[in-house]
C-alpha cells in the first residue's frame, strides 16, 4: 500500500487520494468499511482544506496510511491552527437537532472511524483516524 501522499490544499484531492489507495484497501476490507473509509477520509480532507488553508494557494498536507494488524490508520498532517473539537461536536442528538450549518462533519467523521484524534504539534497539526 502506498505509505505517504503529499497533497495540495484542494477539494479535488479527496477523490484523487481514494483512487490511489482504493485498490489496495479494498482487498482487506468489506464494502461497508470501504464506504466508511472513503466518506470519513473525504470529510477530513474537506475540513483541512476549508479550515486550515488560510487562503494559501501553495499549501500542502500529507497523508500517511498504515495498515497494521490492529487496524487501518490514516494520519493527515498539515500546517495550520490547532483544532480541538467542541464537547458537543460528537453528541448525535445535539448535532442532528441543530440548525447550524457547521459541525456535522466532525460527527460524521466520528461515525466513520472507531477512533479519531486531533493532535497539536506546534506548527503542524495532525488528524489520526483508525478503523
From TrEMBL:
InterPro entries: HATPase_C_sf, HATPase_dom. Transmembrane segments: none annotated. Keywords: ATP-binding, Nucleotide-binding. Residues 27-123 form the Histidine kinase/HSP90-like ATPase domain. GO terms for molecular function: ATP binding. The keyword Nuclease does not apply. It holds the Pfam family HATPase_c_2. The keyword ATP-binding applies. This is ATP-binding protein. It comes from Rhodovulum sulfidophilum (Rhodobacter sulfidophilus). The lineage of its organism: Bacteria, Pseudomonadati, Pseudomonadota, Alphaproteobacteria, Rhodobacterales.
